[in-house]
TrEMBL record, chains A, B, C:
Pathway, per record: Amino-acid biosynthesis; L-arginine biosynthesis
Class of this enzyme: transferase
Family the entry assigns: Belongs to the aspartate/ornithine carbamoyltransferase superfamily. SOTCase family.
Chain residues that bind carbamoyl phosphate: S47, L48, R49, T50, W75, R110, H147, P148, L149, Q150, C269, L270, R297
Chain ranges of the Aspartate/ornithine carbamoyltransferase carbamoyl-P binding domain: 3-160
Protein name in the entry: N-succinylornithine carbamoyltransferase
Gene: argF'
Role this protein plays: Catalyzes the transfer of the carbamoyl group from carbamoyl phosphate to the delta-amino group of N(2)-succinyl-L-ornithine to produce N(2)-succinyl-L-citrulline. Is essential for arginine biosynthesis.
Domain Aspartate/ornithine carbamoyltransferase Asp/Orn-binding: residue ranges: 184-305
Swiss-Prot/TrEMBL catalytic activity: N(2)-succinyl-L-ornithine + carbamoyl phosphate = N(2)-succinyl-L-citrulline + phosphate + H(+)
Binding-site residues, N(2)-succinyl-L-ornithine: E142, H176, K236, R273
Any GO BP: citrulline biosynthetic process
Amino acid sequence: MEHYLSLKDIDSLPNWVAEAKSLKANPLHYKSLGAAKTICLLFFNNSLRTRLSTQKAAMNLGMEVIVMNFGSEGWALEYGDGTIMDQGTSEHIKEAAQVVAQYCDIVAIRAFASLTDREKDEAEVVLNGFKKYAGIPVVNMESSVGHPLQSLADAITLSEQNTKEKPKVVLSWAPHPKALPHAVANSFVEMMHLQDAEFVITHPEGYELSPEVTKGAKIEYDQEKALEGADFVYVKNWSNYKDYGKVLNQDPKWTMNAKKLGNAKFMHCLPVRRNIVVADEVLDSSQSLVIEQANNRTYAAQIVLKKLLEGLNNKTSNTLKTEK
Amino acid sequence: MEHYLSLKDIDSLPNWVAEAKSLKANPLHYKSLGAAKTICLLFFNNSLRTRLSTQKAAMNLGMEVIVMNFGSEGWALEYGDGTIMDQGTSEHIKEAAQVVAQYCDIVAIRAFASLTDREKDEAEVVLNGFKKYAGIPVVNMESSVGHPLQSLADAITLSEQNTKEKPKVVLSWAPHPKALPHAVANSFVEMMHLQDAEFVITHPEGYELSPEVTKGAKIEYDQEKALEGADFVYVKNWSNYKDYGKVLNQDPKWTMNAKKLGNAKFMHCLPVRRNIVVADEVLDSSQSLVIEQANNRTYAAQIVLKKLLEGLNNKTSNTLKTEK
Amino acid sequence: MEHYLSLKDIDSLPNWVAEAKSLKANPLHYKSLGAAKTICLLFFNNSLRTRLSTQKAAMNLGMEVIVMNFGSEGWALEYGDGTIMDQGTSEHIKEAAQVVAQYCDIVAIRAFASLTDREKDEAEVVLNGFKKYAGIPVVNMESSVGHPLQSLADAITLSEQNTKEKPKVVLSWAPHPKALPHAVANSFVEMMHLQDAEFVITHPEGYELSPEVTKGAKIEYDQEKALEGADFVYVKNWSNYKDYGKVLNQDPKWTMNAKKLGNAKFMHCLPVRRNIVVADEVLDSSQSLVIEQANNRTYAAQIVLKKLLEGLNNKTSNTLKTEK
């Protein structure tokens, strides 16, 4: 694996989940793997879980960690090819990516969707810019279209909690006062494609995610029907995809509550708005897995970094062999 | 000790001060105590001394340190019970506190008073929220009502500098153009309650601190009279407590100067406004202890973290015993 | 060497460059030199290269690193002597510098020129304040008038790339939409004074740098003539020095391009505005050394910190001898 940009970079999800669970049982077992290796975490947006868990994961592997709020501490970046840079941007991604790579072995990046220009968001200029120019492994800490560290943590959580051969998992849209990105929902759907489960997506009509992402997945507009017999309910708001980035629906009847949830386990990536997305009674019940999901963020990041470090070490040892 | 939220968490101030002084003599003696332990420092407000000294203390104990400006880098927190979160706040303290606790062993928090709503400030929602929900030791890096790391450093400084059996210590209010919190003054008074000293508080009439804090302490409105024969003078501004958070007095006759100070030692927590709170002649004289106080912040934080780490280790070893 | 404030602090540039190149060949060779030593990096302005490379250099030497955005995370500083601090500043440099020194062994500072008041900028109040009051080694991470870590990296790059006994090096002004400081240009000129090279500065008439800096250097207003036979062309914008901080010229004929560059190598400190300062064709060609310059920032910082650490260790061992 060269990068961790999306779930497509995982060769075998069951193997990764198994290995992550063994890291969780013994987090410091590979403390020497990252010795003398540095990771830069570059934040173009706010972060709590991702910031702390990725640092923690890197430290568990013995890496040096440099954290930078690129947006406020660095220079405004230009992404266009051939641009005459006489406006607000001070540095081109071509230089920035190569420069960052001089000081670290792995770079992890968070750059949210703008939610104003769909085409631009889907081009993922920040992540792809670093991928193209940095020449070192790049980790996606949530981009415009995906949050694969979150969905890997979700896969770990599902694996820990599931007791059935083929559980029923429902992704249920929820209302929210602000326009939120599609990244978490997208990556969750992609992750479910790799699971042996009955998977249903439910949301108001018109709130369809990208058809490319949901291709082959079952969509049921009737929330009640979708939730019938669910073992796990993953609740998440996203803004409209067709009328891109708009909040067209805030209908409280989509809010998750105890009655709707039934006996299912409740999942959410956090942060979550209480009594808008989900009722207190659910979050405060033992059916909620949200804290365990947050905990598993560390081991999701740690398995990703472990794979990338092993890749770097193999590369070095191959180079050494060739040089002989 | 489970947490370090106020001076009430200290079992014996003399013992702590003695132990802090021995840490100061040999700061790296317990370098292995914090191995594989992580502290998160969460700042909801600006900080210089606290930020640097607490990091330094944690590093002296071999801990991993994660620093986060929660206000600007994280999500706006909700503290209300049962709130329908359709306004500005994105995450509830219930989740935030539990989540942070997944990534560290100790959490330290700075959250200043708003100085607009006394009742709310005294409820200390941030600190108490983390205490209630995090399930790990919480350290107060200055809350609405107290700054116990500062007053512990002050106790160390007093102990180092005092030559008398029962010194006279005066807390003297000073003018200031901006409304400042009561935290430092409160904790200093609480600390003086634990000292064998003649303690006097002096301030303009109407500038009384919380009666709960000053209960049993001598208050003398005549500054000159209060300062007579003082060995240590601790100068500090605070805004009005009754007319909460207001600046009702900026009378320069309360500014500390060499004449008033006499032969006493001068103390202040810093930052200090020169020639408003105290004259240059005092700060630049050998009677000023302010830099030594700042230096002792490291060892105050270090003794606190040492006690908490020992608590964690005992807990682990008790758990292991029980499991047998 | 007590501090690293400008190139004047280097005893022998050729020796330093040679030593930096040997650090580059084996970056972790002195990993134990910085054990139990802490560096504080204080940023009053934005930074990418300096932030990352100086951290990396310190970590390569085994130091503990504390990074602080002083401007946004700390308190507004006062620099005036005898000021009555009743305005916007909360803490005097006298206290701030001494306090920071309680928590670290070396302090590194970035504080840009204001470009509004030349006299004030040239007084370098931040850097000189720390130098005067901190009592520990101070490193200049770009001040109002100099950027000696950059020019040391440039010297390393020149040494690696140069194949001639006496190369021709040209510093060529470039247009820019915003007012930029003189620090990089100043330090580059100072560094070239220490080189055995034919050195020419070219810029529009009226764009002279400080005469004190360029004293003895050849200035040629005709860019084409200046560039004739050049081996290295260092391109950099600076705002007007006489009409201080003004942008009086944005003439695109000063933009560097492939034709003008000829067979010379291209250098720039970055960040660079593409197609304003320099054409894409130059930056994207193999003649560009900008990424190598950025890479050498690590080893420039590392040789500086190594010298300072050795100084600290000598001081300690001398003190120990005296105490015997």
